[in-house]
């Protein structure tokens, strides 16, 4: 049962993923595109009541001020989006633009003040559009890991540090997560490998705030393929000795990940599932190279060496090439719809079954894609039944 419109609040709203998702939502709402790549549009979800595409309203935060329509045209010029589609949904892009709010790289006052400013923007967006709820999705650029990673174990001590006008103890991703979950009580997904809620003092924040959350680091291409293939080797008793990977990409992501500190967290999350599925003794060198002329087209190469029967050698090589943002955008839309369902059903805290969408899933140690897919469908059906049985307020 759809109880009104759902807000989609993108952190990094003018970036490639958010812009592609915004164009996609508009095109789906207008009937100009088919929901290709959306899990929630598949037959397994036909009986699950989810927000309609026309009922999704986009807003968000960004440090950039490039108009969405211009950003979308640049993506179209680079081959990622059809120009005709961008022009057709231009009025909806203008509407979304009006709902975007700026972030400053060096905000004034304490970090507590900044959290409240971001939370107020989300609440104002919800109220101005008469939304049933707002789902916040962080799709901002990957942050470098903090040089002195915050290790606050006590929420009271963290609050004291946040109130100090001279202290900058948390990165922007964590400020946005706190604004969403604690300040606006909005369902939240972290689609990046940035720190976000990864502090001991925040471990129970979502449960205490009564909202569902999901993360971390969207599983779109190379890692998706790995989590499909690795269980095959294990099931057939073939021992994987090494799994090497190389990623070539340009665009904004390539430039961001050229920073050795920014790429560090990305490499950790990309390899975690592989080691969990195959063991820590698997040799797994992995690197990401910035190749500016590729633009937003990403290519990933993998070389797998395994041991077979009677000490024979098995080699598998894969090449995956795609516009990463067009892989990520439908997953983001899926997450918004499913977190809206979870919130309507009264679910709070990390939703393990949404690990299907992530490299490093919160609340789950399951990385096998086939198992994750089964768990997601079962969860969605159970949650839909729970929601339909809940009393109407």
Automatic annotation (TrEMBL):
Listed Gene3D superfamilies: Dihydrodipicolinate Reductase, domain 2, NAD(P)-binding Rossmann-like Domain
Domain of life: Bacteria
One Pfam family linked to the record: NAD_binding_5
Domain Myo-inositol-1-phosphate synthase GAPDH-like as annotated: residue spans: 221-325
InterPro entries per the UniProt record, alphabetical: Myo-inos-1-P_Synthase, Myo-inos-1-P_Synthase_GAPDH, NAD(P)-bd_dom_sf
Family affiliation: Belongs to the myo-inositol 1-phosphate synthase family.
Protein name: Inositol-3-phosphate synthase
Organism listed in the record: Agromyces tropicus
């Amino acid at each position: 049962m759809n109880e009104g419109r759902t807000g989609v609040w993108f952190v990094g709203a003018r970036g490639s993923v958010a812009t592609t998702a915004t164009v996609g939502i508009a095109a789906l709402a207008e009937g100009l595109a088919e929901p290709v790549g959306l899990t929630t549009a598949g037959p397994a979800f036909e009986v699950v009541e989810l927000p309609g595409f026309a009922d999704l309203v986009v807003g968000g935060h960004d440090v950039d001020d490039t108009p969405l329509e211009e950003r979308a045209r640049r993506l179209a010029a680079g081959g990622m989006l059809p120009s005709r589609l961008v022009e057709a949904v231009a009025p909806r892009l203008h509407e979304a633009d009006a709902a975007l709010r700026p972030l400053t790289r060096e905000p004034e006052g304490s970090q507590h003040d900044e959290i409240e400013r971001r939370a107020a923007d989300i609440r104002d967006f919800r109220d101005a559009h008469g939304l049933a709820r707002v789902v916040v999705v962080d799709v901002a650029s990957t942050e470098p890991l903090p040089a002195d990673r915050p290790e606050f174990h006590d929420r009271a001590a963290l609050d004291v540090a946040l109130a100090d006008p001279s202290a900058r103890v948390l990165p922007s991703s964590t400020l946005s997560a706190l604004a969403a979950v604690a300040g606006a009580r909005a369902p939240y997904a972290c689609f990046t490998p940035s720190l976000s809620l990864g502090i001991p003092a925040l471990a129970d924040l979502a449960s205490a705030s009564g909202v569902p959350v999901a993360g971390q680091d969207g599983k779109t291409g190379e890692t998706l393929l790995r989590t499909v293939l690795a269980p095959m080797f294990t099931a057939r008793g073939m021992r994987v000795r090494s799994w090497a990977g190389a990623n070539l990409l340009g665009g904004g992501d390539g430039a961001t990940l050229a920073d050795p500190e920014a790429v560090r967290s990305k490499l950790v999350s990309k390899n975690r599932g592989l080691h969990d599925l195959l063991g820590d003794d698997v040799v797994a060198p992995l690197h990401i190279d910035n190749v500016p002329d590729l633009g937003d087209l990403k290519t990933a190469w993998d070389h797998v060496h395994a041991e077979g029967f009677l000490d024979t050698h098995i080699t598998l090589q894969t090449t995956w090439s795609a516009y990463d943002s067009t892989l990520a955008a439908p997953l983001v839309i899926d997450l918004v719809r499913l977190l809206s369902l979870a919130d309507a059903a009264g679910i709070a805290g990390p939703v393990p079954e949404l690990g299907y969408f992530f490299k490093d899933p919160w609340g789950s140690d399951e990385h096998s894609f086939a198992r994750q897919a089964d768990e997601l469908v079962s969860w969605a059906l159970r949650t839909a039944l729970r929601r339909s049985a809940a009393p109407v307020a």
